[in-house]
Write a structure and sequence with these properties.
This protein has about 450 residues and is an alpha+beta fold. The protein contains 9 helices and 19 strands.
């Protein structure tokens, strides 16, 4: 840490001699990826990288540059690139180095656990993700499977005395079942994320993937009409992520956020409360500081259906005359943006029986979501697979349907919201079971 801090301080001293100010983000990453194909290890990849990025501000103009080498000549070249870029940038008075003397360190042993697992066990897991899936009846292949892990360290420093540090480790695994029977095919994919090898539960993962792919094999389209819909937790995470720009102060500053002028107004059902939480047990986005060095904290975005806050960094906050709320996002290569930590939809008032009352579609797989969605208007149209359900029981597998609607109307058409909160596979999105009403489904 001392070497990195000294290097960043020397670079900031050079920035000062140019009559400028800056913030620096440096990262060091190591990763391992193992994949299997036809019973053999098809990939054993070990990678490492180091990079540093600068956001230089001089005379109200911003220059961004980065370097993958940390020697003096490369750093000098990076600094010159940022200076040159700032000369041709438009005037941007909202961007300033706003955080002073922040000395935050992510001191959470949960996210930085030592790993003593022998490599042989990791290889065995990688091979088993394919071989054990292929041993199941009807499985033709497991085309996508891997074990992966990574360790990363990040440093942030600026011209105002800030120096922050973050370190974490992560592991994950995923696999697929491609089932073929009597000329029909069905494929389903899922993964797991965690902080240690011991957290992974590959066999329950494979069981769920296989059972879902098998159940969908005989799926057919339902009749065209209006349906109540429950999105499985991973599908709901995808859907809300696709329209997360509505929470962005940067999009609002650019004039393309549909909720730009709706602060203090109701934008969703009164059952819906949405927060960005700095820490969740087992969460994968725990970090003590944001992309500018400001402390992260819990932030209520929507409370009982009312839009309370947007995600702000110092520039978007200055633009709107509000206070930054610790949601700045920036990496060594990127410009200043915003992002939440863990998005959490609060539990609702309804029992499982109430949520699952009557007839509805349970959608577990969405196809072409991003290509069929307009985050500004909220309109969407995408393919989907899942199950037609009655009172919580799956009565028919469903494939070959197109679901259409408007996301912003959908948030106001919640019919029931369950009392238990679940995490998605990435462990950065949490929500109860929610039944939405009135989606248009094009089927047969």
């Amino acid at each position: 840490m001392s070497d990195m801090k000294q290097m960043m301080e020397r670079l900031l001293d050079k920035v000062a001699t140019l009559g400028a100010e800056a913030d620096l983000i440096a990262s060091s990453d190591q990763a391992l990826s193992l994949k299997a194909d036809k019973g053999e290890l098809s990939e054993y990849k070990v990678t490492s990288s180091r990079q540093i990025g600068i956001r230089l501000i001089r005379d109200g103009r911003v220059g961004i540059a980065y370097s993958e080498a940390l020697d003096d000549a490369s750093l000098d070249a990076m600094l010159q690139d940022a200076l040159d870029a700032s000369r041709f940038a438009r005037l941007d008075p909202d961007q300033q180095i706003a955080i002073s003397n922040s000395q935050l360190h992510t001191a959470d042993p949960e996210i930085d656990q030592p790993d003593q697992t022998p490599i042989e066990e990791k290889i065995a897991l990688s091979l088993a993700l394919e071989s054990e899936m292929l041993a199941r009846p009807g499985v033709k292949s497991a085309p996508y499977n891997a074990y992966y892990e990574g360790r990363s360290e990040l440093w942030l420093a600026n011209s105002h005395g800030t120096f922050c540090q973050h370190r974490e480790g992560s592991v994950g695994a995923y696999t697929t079942a491609l089932i073929e029977q009597e000329g029909r095919q069905s494929m389903f994919y899922r993964g797991q994320s965690g902080r240690s090898f011991a957290e992974l539960s590959p066999r329950p993962l494979m069981d769920d993937i296989y059972q879902t792919a098998s159940a969908l094999l005989t799926g057919e389209a339902v009749p065209t009409g209006h349906y109540s819909v429950i999105f499985a937790i991973n599908a709901l995470s995808e859907l809300i992520g696709c329209f997360s720009a509505a929470l962005s102060g940067k999009w609002a500053m650019q004039g393309i956020n549909p909720w730009r002028d709706k602060l203090g107004q109701h934008v969703a059902s009164p059952w819906l409360t949405l927060e960005s939480r700095a820490s969740m047990a087992g969460g994968m986005r725990i970090k003590a500081f944001d992309g500018e060095g400001m402390a992260t904290s819990d932030l209520r975005l929507i409370g009982a259906g009312q839009l309370d806050n947007l995600l702000h960094n110092s520039a978007t906050a200055r633009h709107f005359g509000v206070t930054s709320n610790g949601c700045a996002a920036r990496g060594p290569r990127s410009s200043l943006d915003v992002a939440p930590r863990h998005l959490v939809l609060a539990a609702g008032p309804h029992s499982d029986a109430e949520v699952q009352e009557g007839r509805y579609l349970e959608l577990i797989k969405l196809d072409g979501l991003h290509s069929g969605a307009d985050p500004v208007s909220g309109d969407f149209s995408f393919g989907a697979s899942g199950f037609l359900c009655e009172r919580g029981e799956r009565v028919q597998p469903v494939r070959g349907i197109t679901v259409a609607g408007n996301f912003y109307r959908l948030l106001n058409e919640i019919e029931a919201m369950g009392q238990h909160v679940y995490a998605d596979d990435g462990r950065d999105f949490y929500a109860p079971t929610i039944r939405f009403g009135g989606l248009n489904v094009a089927g047969k």
